[in-house]
Amino acid sequence: MKTQLLIQNKKDYLLFLLIIILTSLFLTAPLASAKTSAKKGNHASPKSIIQQTLPALTGELGTFSTTGQGQLPKPLYEHTTVTATTGTTTYIYVLGGFTQTSQTNQTFTDVYKATIDSSGNIGSFSSLNQGQLPKALRLHTTVTVNTGGTNYIYVLGGRDIYGRSSEVYKATINSSGDIGAFSTTNQGQLPQPLNAHATVIANIGGINYIYVLGGNNGVPQTTVYKATIDVTGDIGPFSTSGQGQLPHNLMSHSTAVMNIGGINYIYVLGGVGTNSTDGSLYESTAVYKAAIDSSGNIGAFSTVNQGQLPQIQNWHSIASLNDSGNNFIYILGGYPNKDETYRTIVDTSGNAGIFSTTTLLPKPLYGHTSVIAITGTSAYLYVLGGNSLNTVQSAVYKAQIN
């Protein structure tokens, strides 16, 4: 079944999500659904920047601009974006994604790499020498980790041409920043097929743990899975044992991990779910926080003392900065036509403060990705791709964090 989506307004969007939830129990043909951390996290998957190089910052953003930035080779949304540093060079990667016109819908296997220079500018994106995804994916998550001096990249879940995926792929990033072949060998697989979920990594006592939160498997989920990444970069089995579960079923939410005063906290923001009483759609403004203990287990999630989102947020992007006392979380864009960028300051108790508006995006975006990179004593926030007023974008924007 070929699905063409031209979403015109919020009423159409809510009907669209309800159709997905009601029919996905029966259909496996490609459907578009709300993006994680997207989305979306992504849709991204969000990556906290934990280094010790920055001066004290206010967290306010400069102007977003495409000047000096390599642009995406094609229009994309529902893709993922991550960074990895090898030696003194930071690379940015864009994986998979979806494009949509009045004539065609297409999901991609492409993996692109670009270099971020000392001025924070992104070079040209290229798929040359990059391992490509084993299958076309969208609404997946991607994270990177360094263990034993080697960088690894992981792709989890998502939607392919047949439906939702439970597969977890791993690849090695070499000393030149190139991604090797992706494989599921020796990787714990997701206990259920998921898209529009969120994935984060936390290092606790020198051990890397990977967490998968919520997502869509016909209906939004409350599950929180944890697995351990060993010294060879392999992911162990995923389990909900000992993990605080989400207070509400969610998909198209976003997640961040912050280390505050030596304690790791995990935050879940926004998203879409269903009400338990009648199955109607629930769009969230909630911000949940939980502590991660010394064994890597997530405690109970709560909104207590957490600044809540000023408006419902889903299909947005998230980026977080956790460096030298600069602890900020950014929420950018979202469905249907949002151009707002919100910033919160995380205090010394790990509580998210009031969300305030900072620099607007150049245009409304949803299904885009955002990452932060540090070069020298400066930090930059990047926004890549997305859908703006039913037109898929290839633009890459950069803004300095002041």
Label this structure with key terms.
single chain, 402 residues, mainly beta, Neuraminidase, five-stranded mixed β-sheet, 37% strand
Tell me what you see in this structure.
With 402 residues, this protein is mainly β. The protein has a single domain (10-401), classed as Kelch-type beta propeller (Neuraminidase), CATH 2.120.10. It is 3% helix and 37% strand. The protein has one helix and 28 strands. It is globular. The termini are far apart. InterPro entries: Gal_Oxase/kelch_b-propeller, Kelch-typ_b-propeller, Kelch_domain_containing_8. Keywords: Kelch repeat, Repeat.
Could you provide a short overview of the structure?
With 402 residues, the chain is mainly β. It has one helix and 28 strands. The strands form ten sheets. Strands 1-20-21-22-23 form a five-stranded mixed β-sheet, with no helix packed on it.
